[in-house]
Amino acid sequence: MGLPFLKMHGLGNDFVILEGRRAPLELPRDWIRAVGDRRTGVGFDQLIVMEPPSDGRADLFMRIFNPDGSESGACGNATRCIAHIAMQAEGRGAVVIETLAGLLPAQRVDTDVVTVDMGPARLAWDAIPLARAVDTLHVPMTLGPLSDGVATNMGNPHITFFVPDAEAVDLATWGPQAEHHPLVPERANIGLVSVLARDHIRFRVWERGAGITRACGSGACAAAVAAIRRGLTDRRLVVSMDGGDLTLEWRADDGHVLMTGPIATSFFGEFVGDLALERFV
Ligand SMILES: N[C@@H](CCC[C@H](N)C(=O)O)C(=O)O
Q: Where do the annotations place substrate binding (predicted)?
């Protein structure tokens, strides 16, 4: 019998979503890597497994894998997709999604638009984590055109670099070098930001364990927090990525970051054996 899956995306950041709530799924890391390979497998930016929540405070637990087989504590774009699934199944307008990083309340704001409370931005050097005590507002990492970044943990580690023109930076060259820099012992997602206005930034991303993606929800949160900490933008802003826009707000009272954006369903399928795929829709 095959393993059914759903393919969804948020702004072109795409996910294979598996149902693991009725019976636990054993997913060998080399299977995840094979399925994630766009040349030979279905391909995804993240593999998401829906699991039972640890207690009654959440509707479901969401486990997140990168295509290199590594696990992450956060995925903003997938959280909107998973919240949409849970809200649709229950006929509700709000749910709570549990991740390794904590409980994330989400609500529907339009048919295919969801807001997620991504929790507090963590700013201490050892919460990122960084390898040693440095100022997270001025991270001493210099690589080609990238320097003086801002470190943020949104449930996963991010380094955001401000550049005059994000399009002009060779992200495929500098992204992996920054991801694997000795200052980030758990590696990091690498963002490039150009400030367009006090309520608008351009953001490109090199995702840890995935490479360049069309959008990254947690990265957009980190980019917004970095821009606000530097005094470059207001607390509510639009983050424009290759795949489209998210609206971000960094709340002053509790430090939580609210992310609003679209979700989309691509197709249903089934894994038969290892990689063979039947498309149903
Ligand atoms: N696409 C994501 C982030 C996914 C995890 C990341 N690559 C990591 O390893 O932390 C998002 O939308 O946030």
A: 13, 46, 66, 76-77, 156, 189, 207-208, 217-218
Residue 174's nearest CA partner among 195, 139, 138, 147 is 147
Q: What is the CATH number of the domain that holds 160?
A: 3.10.310.10
Which of the listed residues 156, 204, 260 should we mutate to test ligand 1's pocket, taking the one with most ligand atoms within 8 A of CB? 156
Ligand 1 atom 4 nearest Cα: 75
Cα distance between residue 231 and residue 229, in whole Å: 5
How many domains does the chain divide into?
Answer: 2
Supply 159's token pair.
Answer: 């380094």
DSSP 8-state code for residue 149: B
Q: Structural domain of residue 275, as residue ranges?
A: 3-119+263-279
Say whether 218 counts as a known binding-site residue: yes
Grade residue 278 by pLDDT with cuts at 50, 70 and 90.
low
Predicted confidence band of residue 165 (pLDDT cuts 50, 70, 90):
very high
Q: Domain check: are 124 and 102 in the same one?
A: no
Whole-structure pTM value: 0.97
Q: Which amino acid is at 191?
A: G
Q: Chain-wide mean pLDDT for the chain?
A: 96
208 is in an annotated binding site: yes
Residues 145 and 50 in one domain: no
Do 13 and 56 lie in a common domain?
A: yes
Complex ipTM more than 0.95, yes or no: yes
